[in-house]
Amino acid sequence: MPMFLFLHGYPSFWYKWKKGSTSAQAELVKLAPRIKHMDAYINSGVQHKEVGKKTITPVRLTAAGFIAIAFLTFGTFPNPVSSDVLLASTAHAESKLDALIDPKLKAWLDRLRQGAMPEGIAKTNGRIEATQIDVSAKYAGRLASVNVNEGDEVTAGQEIARISSPETEAQLRGAQAQELTAKQTLAEAEALIAERKSDLEFANNDVERGKPLVEKGYMTKQVFDQRVTKAEVAEAALHAAEAQDEAAQSQIKNAQAEIERIEAILVDLTLVSPRSGRVQYLIHRAGEVVDAGTRILTILDLNDVYMTIYLPAAQAGKLAIGDEARMILDPFPQYVVPATVSFVATDAQFTPKSVETAEEREKLIFRVKLQVDPKVLGKYHTEVKTGVRGMGFVRTDTAVSWPEDLAVKLP
After folding, report:
1. Nearest alpha-carbon partner for 123 in 374, 404, 370
2. 137 closest CA partner among 299, 280, 278, 272
3. E strands within 38-188?
4. Is there a single domain that holds both residue 237 and residue 281?
5. In this structure, are 98 and 155 located in the same domain?
6. pLDDT at residue number 89
7. What is the pLDDT of residue 381?
8. Residues 339 and 307: beta-carbon distance below 8 Å
9. Same domain, 198 and 339
10. CA-CA distance, 383 to 162, in Å (whole number)?
11. Is there a single domain that holds both residue 395 and residue 307?
């Protein structure tokens, strides 16, 4: 494209120049400072190497190239005119040059500037992702209410849905009734224990009173043995009452455990958000009957946002967890987002079909996660959109400084 413009426009300019056209000379004088500035801007770029081992031949646009582009845009120069008209023509020419640079040339220049990176810095395509949490029903039932919609922001612990289960509620009432019955049994056992203790005490006293009477012959041996037997029966009755007391206490504990179990089920029937984030998918609505394990909705954890990229072994092997990284997203190319390397796969994989690598000949690559700075997420989490594509940049040599184009730039 640039060479074509040069060859197409330069002869026209040369012809007017050789003819001594004052308009051509005046236009050149007026445009010279701007052309010189643009020439210096383009030539100031450092000749970088592309990711991997490919190299891009350095691109150098001379002032003549810009003159050719400008002349092609403006057409032939007008005939000699007054100085006022000449100044107006020059201003018009400069505005047309700006208009040309913005939609076409600027994009082309940006591609050239960003097409090569300094040695020690690698780049590749990536996609923004976030940790997804599925909120599922632990028990079967009917969705009584769903309190959120897709796209809503939720906080950890917020109620998002509730499942109605009349059967479980009936079981709870039954367990509570069993607890009351067990407590009544316990009260009866405790009263019986008191009665048996009193009987035993009376029987033991009767035996003690009978001993001297038997020794002096005032009481027969048979009557005394009956008193001893009665005391032993009272003691056995006391042990039985104590066993009933223990059984009643066990029944109470079992009933309470059953109540706690059913109450736990009822708690799980109220679905709460496990983390703060955004509702990504709402799968079931109020009124639907769901089974145990059915996914109700999916939440994105906006505190765990990252870009997944793929790098060849020569580059991925030089990365370390915690290394600095940068992101430039397609919807916001004017911003540079800070990130860190949070994961480097230990096993290589074949290049995914949807991923473009710097060198197509490389078949095995490593998955790398670039974690977005939590501070940035805390401030701009409402702007996070998963699935957004962009470019990820990492340093394979930590001694290399980030170029000015990759300096952190946020809104």
Report:
1. 370
2. 272
3. 121-136, 141-146, 153-154, 159-164
4. no
5. no
6. 42
7. 77
8. yes
9. no
10. 29
11. yes
Which has the closest alpha carbon to 226: 249, 246, 241, 206? 206
| Number of domains the chain contains | 4
Rounded to whole angstroms, how far apart are CA atoms 348 and 355? Answer: 15
- pTM over 0.85? The answer is no
The pLDDT value given to residue 374: 85
* pLDDT, tens only, 21-64: 444 455 555 555 555 555 554 444 444 433 333 333 333 444 44
Residue 218 has pLDDT above 90, yes or no: no
Give the C-alpha separation, 163 to 269, whole Å: 5
Percent of the chain with pLDDT over 70: 68
**Statement to judge: residues 6 and 20 lie in one domain:** yes
Is pLDDT larger for residue 197 or for residue 356? 197
79 exposed, middle or buried (CB, 10 Å; 0-12, 13-18, 19+)? exposed
For residues 5 and 100, the answer to whether their CB atoms sit within 8 Å is no
Could you give the CA distance from residue 296 to residue 390 in angstroms, rounded to a whole number?
A: 31
Amino acid in position 263: E
Summarised one tens digit per residue, pLDDT across range 95-107 is 444 454 445 435 5
Residue 411 is assigned to a structural domain of this protein: no
How far is C-alpha 404 from the geometric centre of its chain's CA atoms?
29
